[in-house]
Amino acid sequence: MADEPVKKTVYLAGLAWRQLRDDPGRASRLAVRLAARTPLGARLRRSRLVVPRPRDAGRETRDLRLLLDEPAPPRTRRAVQGTTVLQFVTNALPRTNAGYTVRTHRIALAQREMGLDPHVVTRLGYPLSQGVADARARVDVDGVPYHRLLPWFPQTDPRDTVAKSADLAGRLVEELRPSVLHAVSNHLNAAVALELGRRHGVPVVYEVRGFLEDSWLSRDPAHREDDEFYRLTRELETRRMAEADAVVTLGEAMRAEIASRGVPEEKIFTVPNGVDEAFLAPLPDGSGLRERLGIDRGATVAGLTSSFYGYEGIDTLIDAAALLRDRGAPVTLLLVGDGPERGALERRAAERGVHAVFTGRVPMESVRQYHAVLDVFAVPRRADRVCQLVTPLKPIEAMAGGIPVIASDVKALREIVEPGVTGALTVPEDPEAWANCLEDLAYSPERRQKIGRSAREWVAAERTWRAVTAGYRAAYRFPTRQST
Q1: What is the domain count for the chain?
Q2: Is 408 a domain residue?
Q3: Per-position b or e across 448-464, b if 16+ CB within 10 A of its CB
């Protein structure tokens, strides 16, 4: 559209002004982030100043209180007709490549195969709100329409954000006539869907893919469950679950947590993570990539694909590798991904003399090439509450390729790893236990192959996107029918 360049400029200028007004201390970080995007800014891209500083906790809690003070308006619900699904998400492909966005996309593709008509809507301002100068109102990925809600100016009040989002998305509702509004974590997406449901009489399903307050709790040892941010976020998330017509979540531990908050069990549906059927094909030859990464042909390689947050426990994996080196049974670590802990993890590996290859983020279509380098896929998550509850996607992708998984023995991971059959479980945050488990499996080729085959068979039977996505029909109250 002709106004896209102007809207992009106006919105980004407004975003910078709002950030500096809210927190003048962000000025240096904002300058570095802008400079890093220039052709001369390559070195700056590794600076800690490039990482955006979280908003002031006081402003965050103020916003939560404002949303909680808003009364829940009554809604009328009409019967489900048609097959159009309008899904509301925080971020999406092609700009953001993460487990969250991969799940969104694969579900949309699988729903289309089922005969549904899925459309995805990203949160207000995205991707401009991320500093990405892309003001297209719609982007299609593999035939899936991704709609963007792009105002001229960023909102400052969360209630205005919900109202403006509903105003812009209301045009889509009127055009597409969706049968269901499917909001995905977090509570703001749910609030937008609920407001649209109120205005248009459309049923609302809220998909809880994680617990925001527990993720926040795990990212800083200073955070506590009695902090106001934790308490208010939990209260607001629970309210959105209660207000929705149905709640979808990823696993049984998460289902039990949601039910414990007073949400009726009969309206909670489990749709676990899955994989595209292409992940079940034989892995490509990894020898060429090994050589390019500087990994010896005969080296034993353990690793992961992940976002680098503290709760992922990658420090435990590095410490375990150091113990194995001292025992004369070294492993090379292949750590694929990025995040706020990457710099600290690189320093840790160097200090302990561990051969660790950090690749940064890789394109989604290249993940299996990196899987082909691995002998063992590791999920060394901590015993934090968020890790006990939330089931990750990445290990299922590895299992589909026949790679044995070693995971921390926490509730959520017990749902996908059967010890001795599809993988191994060991003590979280215990480098020696991890070293023992790694040595036992990594140096037993026949056992690795047997476990890898069993893991692949389990994924093929139960965890393809086609298999798991059928669970949405019950949540949507759609009648079962064969795909066309």
Answers
A1: 3
A2: yes
A3: beebbebbbebbbeebb
β-strand 144-147 against 117-122: which pairing, if any?
parallel
- Residue 374 backbone phi and psi in degrees, to 5: -85, 140
Residues 245 and 306 in one domain: no
Residue range of the domain that includes 208? 68-273+467-476
C-alpha separations of 242 from 209, 246, 249 in Å = 16, 8, 14
CA distances from 299 to 332, 374, 438, 456 (A): 7, 10, 14, 24
Q: Global pTM?
A: 0.87
Residue type, 429: E
Backbone torsion region of residue 131, taken as left when φ is above 0, otherwise alpha when ψ lies between -120 and 50, otherwise beta: left
Kindly state whether residue 60 falls inside one of the protein's structural domains.
no
Residue 210 sits in the same domain as residue 284 = no
CA angle 400, 401, 405 (to 5 degrees): 75
SS3 362: coil
* 400 plus 471 within the same structural domain: no
Pairing relation of β-strands 138-141 and 144-147? antiparallel
Does one domain contain both 224 and 89? Answer: yes
138 shares its domain with 224? yes
Alpha carbons 199 and 206: distance in angstroms, whole number? 17
- Residue 484: inside a domain, yes or no? no
366-381 exposure pattern, b = at least 16 Cβ within 10 A, e = fewer? ebbbbbbbbbbbbbbb
Q: What is the mean pLDDT of the chain?
A: 90
Give residue-wise pLDDT tens across range 184-237.
999 999 999 999 999 999 999 999 999 999 998 988 888 999 999 999 999 999
Say whether the peptide bond before residue 380 is cis (omega within 30 degrees of 0): no
User: Does residue 147 sit within a domain?
Assistant: yes
